[in-house]
Amino acid sequence: MTDTTPDRVRLAGEVARQIDQLAEHLTQSPIHEAVQIIATVLDPDDGVLARITTLVAAGSHYAESRAKSGDFPPEVWLALGLAANQLHDVALDIEKHTVTLRQLAQRPTAGGTALPPRSADGPAPGRGR
Question: Is 110 helix (H, G, I), strand (E, B) or coil?
Answer without folding.
Answer: strand
